Amino acid sequence: MKAEAGAEARALLLEGYQGVLSTHSQEMPGYPFGSVAPYCLDGAGRPLLLISELAQHTKNLRADPRCSFIVVVPGEDIQVNARLTLVGECEPLLDEADIAAAADRYYRYFPDAADFHRIHDFRFFRLEPRRCRYIGGFGRIHWVEPAPVLLANPFAGEAEADIVAHMNEDHAEALLHYCRQAGLAAGDALPRMTGIDAGGIHLRLGARIVRIPFPAPVSTPGQARAALVALARAER
User: What is the pLDDT averaged over residues 149-169?
Assistant: First the structure.
C-alpha cells in the first residue's frame, strides 16, 4: 500500500505545476502564511520555484526555510480528490550552474516569466522535502518518505533539451496527435513540449500545462524515441 501511495504521490507531483506554499510569517510571528506558486521539477525531482524578493513568502523563507507545499488535483469536490503535502526546507539556489539549469527548465514550462531572474528581482528556490503526506481519497492517507516521490529524471539536462527542441521543431503534428489521443482539447493553441521524464511528456497548451504518461517507464533516449513513436501511431 505504501509503494502504491508513493507512486501516486509522484504522479500527482509531476502533473500539478502549481501549489500552495506555506511559510513562517515574519510579519505575524507564530502564524503560517500561505501563497500560490507555480513550479516544475529539477533533475532530481524536487520542486523549483521562481519567486520575487519583494514577496512576503520570500522574506519568510529567507528568515526560516522550513515550509510545506501542497499540491491538489483540481475538481468539483476537493475532499475526495488526491492531494500531496511536502514538508521540508525551501532555499535559494546559489551555484551558477544550478541557476542556469533551473532557468533552462523552468522557462520552458513558464515562458511568460522568461529571464525574470536576470531582469527582475526574482530568485530560484528549491524545495527539499523531508516527508510527504499523501491523501489518495477517503481512508487512503499515508506519510511517505521522499525517496519514492522524488525520482531523478534520466533525461535532465542536454538530453531533455535536445528531445524537446526536436519535437517542437520537427514534429508539431505528432504533438497535436498526442493531445487528441489523450482527449485534450488544444483549441487554437499550438502544443509545445516543455519536458520529458521517465514516465511521460509535458506539453504546454496556451496557458495550460498537461502531462501525457507513457504506457511503461523509459530510461534512455532510444526508449524515449520508441515511446514517442508509439504514441504518434496510437489511434484514439
Answer: 95
